[in-house]
From TrEMBL:
<dbReference type="GO" id="GO:0005829">
    <property type="term" value="C:cytosol"/>
</dbReference>
<dbReference type="Pfam" id="PF04131">
    <property type="entry name" value="NanE"/>
</dbReference>
<keyword id="KW-0413">Isomerase</keyword>
<dbReference type="GO" id="GO:0019262">
    <property type="term" value="P:N-acetylneuraminate catabolic process"/>
</dbReference>
<dbReference type="GO" id="GO:0006053">
    <property type="term" value="P:N-acetylmannosamine catabolic process"/>
</dbReference>
<keyword id="KW-0119">Carbohydrate metabolism</keyword>
<dbReference type="InterPro" id="IPR011060">
    <property type="entry name" value="RibuloseP-bd_barrel"/>
</dbReference>
<protein>
    <recommendedName>
        <fullName>N-acylglucosamine-6-phosphate 2-epimerase</fullName>
        <ecNumber>5.1.3.9</ecNumber>
    </recommendedName>
</protein>
<comment type="function">
    <text>Converts N-acetylmannosamine-6-phosphate (ManNAc-6-P) to N-acetylglucosamine-6-phosphate (GlcNAc-6-P).</text>
</comment>
<dbReference type="GO" id="GO:0047465">
    <property type="term" value="F:N-acylglucosamine-6-phosphate 2-epimerase activity"/>
</dbReference>
<dbReference type="InterPro" id="IPR007260">
    <property type="entry name" value="NanE"/>
</dbReference>
<dbReference type="InterPro" id="IPR013785">
    <property type="entry name" value="Aldolase_TIM"/>
</dbReference>
<comment type="pathway">
    <text>Amino-sugar metabolism; N-acetylneuraminate degradation; D-fructose 6-phosphate from N-acetylneuraminate: step 3/5.</text>
</comment>
């Protein structure tokens, strides 16, 4: 299994593209990953078996997940034991899954997902939204927790990263805490580490030009609707 010290106080870059992005595709994500590693990222986060399989060949730790919406459950990040097994087989060093208080459609317990990851030779990351969820994840054997889902599970969402949650998790839990979600500036990354983060994961601010462009366009005085065709 991965020695987590390789990620201590380092940056992981999430290489994912939304469905509407022209950059969606394994070849593009591979190029993004190579650029991130040239910039000294310590690891990568990738979605989908094809991307995980490709990026795992680059020789750096890969946090793997699948996103799949299922009827009857809001859980969409690695929602089943079968997904965990597939990610391990694809080469994920760490398998990330939703471990909020929301029920999985399969009814499978977090413990089953954790055990599947360990049997597959991977560590298990719990993507959480609260201290209560993180505590349950640790009790089930999660190797680390991440603040990934803070603000995405019905609670009020902010444009800012939830550094307060990172601090609470770091002070309360015996496992490494990864900071993820809406990190857009180096200053925010510094604050996350000061709050106790073991590692920080940054995605769209580095690898999503569609999102980055929209933020800059929003700062322009002329509305998008009035631009010439």
């Amino acid at each position: 299994m991965l020695n987590l010290d390789t990620l201590r106080h380092r940056l992981v870059v999430s290489c994912q593209a939304p469905a509407e992005s022209p950059l969606r595709g394994t070849d593009y994500m591979m190029a993004m990953a190579r650029a991130a590693l040239l910039g000294n990222a310590a690891g990568l986060r990738a979605e989908g078996l094809d991307d995980v399989r490709a990026l795992s060949r680059l020789g750096r730790p890969v946090i793997g997940l699948v996103k799949r919406e299922e009827d009857g459950s809001p859980v969409y990040i690695t929602p089943s034991v079968a997904d965990v097994r597939d990610l391990c087989a694809a080469g994920a060093s760490i398998v990330a899954a939703d471990v909020t208080m929301r029920p999985r459609r399969s009814g499978e317990a977090t413990l089953a997902l954790v055990e599947a990851a360990h049997r597959g030779g991977a560590l298990f990351m719990a993507d959480v939204d609260s201290l209560a969820a993180a505590g349950e994840a640790v009790a089930a054997g999660a190797d680390m927790v991440s603040s990934t889902l803070s603000g995405y599970t019905g609670r009020v969402q902010s444009d800012e990263p939830d550094i307060a949650l990172v601090n609470t998790l770091a002070r309360s839990l015996p496992v490494p805490v990864f900071a993820e979600g809406r990190y857009r500036t180096p200053e925010q990354v510094e604050r996350a580490f000061a709050a106790g983060a073991f590692c920080v994961v940054v995605g769209g601010a580095i690898t999503d030009p569609l999102q980055i462009t929209r933020r800059f366009v929003a700062a322009c005085p002329q509305p998008v609707e009035s631009l010439p065709a």
